[in-house]
Amino acid sequence: MRDVAIIGAGVTRFGELWDKSFRDIGVKAGMLAIGDAGLSGSEVDALFIGNMSAGRFINQQNIGAMIADYAGFALKHIPSTRIEAGAASGGIAFRQGVMAVASGMHDVVVVGGAEKMTDVDDASSNSILDSTADQQWEASMGATMASLFAMIARRYIHEGLATREEIASVSVNGHAHGALNPNAQFRKAIKLESVLRSGMVADPLGLFDCAPISDGAAAVILCPMDKAKEYTDNPVRVAASTQASDTLALFQRDSITSFASTRMAADRAFKTAKLSPSDISVAEVHDCYTIEGLMAAEDLGLYERGRAGKAFLEGQTLFDAGKVAINTSGGLKARGHPIGATGVAQIVEIAEQVRGTADKRQVKGARYGMALNLGGTGSAATVSILEGI
Amino acid sequence: MSSTAREWREIPGRYNLKGSKCPECGKVFFPKRSMCPLCRRASIGKMIEYKVERKGTVYTYSVVYDVPEANKRMKPYVVGMIRTDDDILLTAQIVDVDPENVEIGMRVQAVLRKIDDDGPSGVIHYGFKFAPCE
Fold first, then answer.
1. pTM exceeds 0.95
2. Which architecture does CATH list for A4-121+214-236?
3. What is the CATH number of the domain that holds B69?
4. CA B97 to CA B107: how far, in whole Å?
5. In chain A, what are the domain boundaries?
6. B90–A158: do the CB atoms touch at under 8 Å?
7. Contact: B65, A150; criterion CB under 8 Å
8. Do A142 and B62 count as a contact with CB atoms less than 8 A apart?
9. For residue range A344-374, what is the model confidence (pLDDT) as tens digits?
């Protein structure tokens, strides 16, 4: 297997982009990444696109062909593949791209992630999100995605692993970073009281515990490490990109206060990269719901079980706290969560951090960073570790 | 809207909590499975129908305020995970009790209720919910 490098990264504004279509944002992110890598575009020999549900959000399938066409690749006839894995679609598309380059099958690959969610009403949007749980035995029985994570949060509190305030502080951390990210959907710091007082979505989780509905896209360019210097002076090495699965339904698990898929993917990633959690300076973790981000920090081994809550509450997760900085992009809560784009946007953020281009939210001296992207209630997980060269 | 067949074929599970038991290791599953994830090939074609206990305790729950279209008239409602007396965990609504009176460890039993429908003139789908034990 060849070592793989990220040589370019791009992300659109995330938010309610009323004047932009799916193809507008998908192509924009790709163009930003290609520009960042200093490519003309003709070097690209494959596309991988993470997208969860264009079929239901914009009634368009065959997304691989659509993006290849509007990105100007239709006349080159390069392969273009769309990957779906719920909210892990983007991260798993990234891993597919990494494998394609590592194997020698392709040399220059664009990995994109995109979702256009605001073309449907909120009720439809929620119903689409709920379909990443077990439709037949969870969603149909009245379980929404928010309520599944609320049930995890209730167990967390019941077992003494975190307090309600600690769980809420994951949102405060995200917003503090979102305020420093010009592409974030919410660029405003918030207080803990605002999270605790926000309207109930699924008790004990309120509106400010939940990621918003967003439009957006992100992209990265991959090539073999030994060719990276031909394109850029500042490549990022993909030290590991792993993936794990678990039961589709949350109720089929032995424990709901830890995701085995996250633990397995993280374990495989640290082994592949020959690193341990103490080597990590910055992490993007999947916090579609606050409790999910808190649990992720523990499942990744960044904190011991029952300890992440205190770290979030005390601000140890902030970019300038000198510990592991978590969700410096704002996370899913503040940066926004256009489903298929999220996993790739996490990679963009970590790449920016380890190559030292994260501007106002730069974590000092960050060499290794990691990203965790989850689908459903942890039924799909992918972890990547990136190294600044 | 789903086809009627999609709901009809799930009636054994939805009405009567019928799952599967592996004849090799004895482990029970709900909903039904065509193979045991532990015994794998040895269990294929041999899984036995298993009727899950209808009584259990609340393992965790949430009061849902941001409700799906189908449950609009029940807002807010309670959804929970129930651990049945034969140690199967499943997800269902918890009904016939004020949301503020639901708690972890509460004893509940399965009841047959309307789940949703295919519109005012469409088919009504029934299935299990859980209510406090009498």
1. yes
2. 3-Layer(aba) Sandwich (3.40)
3. 2.40.50.840
4. 12
5. 4-121+214-236, 122-213+238-388
6. no
7. no
8. no
9. 999 999 999 999 999 999 999 999 999 999 9
